[in-house]
Amino acid sequence: MAATVTEYCTNHSNDVSDDMKELWDWTVDEFEDSDKMSSPLQGATMQFLAQLLGVKRVLEIGCYSGYSALAWYESTKQTKAEIVTLELDPKMIRASQRTIEKYKIGDRVHLIQGPAQDSIQKLTGTFDLVFVDANKEGYEGYVKAILDKKLLSPSGLIMCDNVFARGMTISTEANPHLLEKVRPYWTECGKALRRFNTFCKSDPRIDTILMPVYDGVTFIKWKQ
Predict the structure, then answer these.
(1) Looking at the Swiss-Prot or TrEMBL record, what is one Pfam family this protein matches (predicted)?
(2) Which of 30, 145, 153, 171 could form a disulfide with 126 if both were Cys (CB 3.0 to 4.6 A apart)?
(3) What values do phi and psi take at 185, rounded to 5?
């Protein structure tokens, strides 16, 4: 049912570009864990939000194959937004560099290699949109650092992906169809994300909404 609904929504939403379709197909063919990549519908959603917010600077924590970076790039041509993307995994750094070169987006996409927590500490200025899609045990530390350093602009938005951890955040019994070989990984992610959700709910500086879309998406903004 979920797959049917997703297909229907995808067919009745904005299409992503041919470049994004090509990159998505390449990533699926190239990487066994490509299910970690944003779906085409989510890519279209991200572009919709970037255009709605008129963002001029984007930070993403976790680049994977560069699909989301390409999405941000295409959707911010009018504002010529700077896109700063952080990645640690050498394999995904190579894939992201391939994307940046192949689709000629290096004029505005800047890939920073290394542990995200260290990279965040070196960032300056503010970002209108922050996309968090990296190691799940790091979410709380990443978001806290962004808030502590005031890297989020006054009207900015933080978007955190995979907050359901394939359902394991809600309950270890929530997804009986989850493959056994990845169940331990997502179970540990679920534990970390439960702590993250508690942090978001209790931090007095922010407003937060956890949406039951995709694999769970949390939106965070400064409290007004």
Answers:
(1) Methyltransf_3
(2) 153
(3) -60, -50
